[in-house]
Amino acid sequence: MPVLLERIAHVPAPAPGHGGTTPADLLEHALDLEVLYGPHKNLDWLELGERVSYADLAEAVAGQLGDDSGVDMLVTVTALPDCQARLLPGALLAIRLGGMPLVLGVNDQGAAGPFTALRLAANHLASGRFRRAAVVLMEQSTHPPEASYTPPPRAGAVVLVLGTDAGRPMDGLSVRRIPPAERRPTPRAGHLQPWYELARRHAGQPAADLAVTDRDDELGYDCRVRFTAPTTDRLVPALTLEARP
């Protein structure tokens, strides 16, 4: 059974607290981090940051999908822990979508996370057990300063809806391990930029084939996927979005 991309959308960061996260939740989590890593030099990163959590992003995604989306499988993707620990974005989003979708979470896989999530969703859809899956990619920028990590410039999300009835076929999905000798780790700010670009180009050129490749030298992944326009008369060349630090 072919797996088809029905829609893709970039969801910008909402206002802080959009999903129910309070300043007290954020401060509590910041103090919990001190137990593990020692006192923060200051809380400027929290007080002056966006203060948008994954729960806030999940609420914004729910508004994008709508309550009658028909989604019966949900896969959330995050590369780093949230800036609060009280609200779980997958559970919050599942409630907003109505029904009882299967909820899976992919965490801490860097650039490979979105591709792993797509593979999970595609395998479940191809089995015939599910009709429609939403893959929700999220990143947030409220992190304590770390010399080894550059946070993304802003929070945001990308939602991809996969189904089996209509849309553009997904193929060429692969996640390859990069041999250690070939890795050239370079700091990068977040992991969703190629997916933001994919959503933008899809909106501007809906008749084009699209492909995404991404490479994470720090974790050692080389990933790619292709979405083929559902027409035999393609006048627009394929667009390949490649993220290389």
Automatic annotation (TrEMBL):
- Return the Gene3D superfamilies for the record: 3.40.47.10
Taxonomic lineage of the native organism: Bacteria, Bacillati, Actinomycetota, Actinomycetes, Kitasatosporales
Mention one GO molecular function. acyltransferase activity, transferring groups other than amino-acyl groups
Report which superkingdom the organism of origin falls in.
Bacteria
InterPro entries, from UniProt? Answer: Thiolase-like
- Annotated region (Disordered) at 171-191
What is the name of the protein in this document? Uncharacterized protein
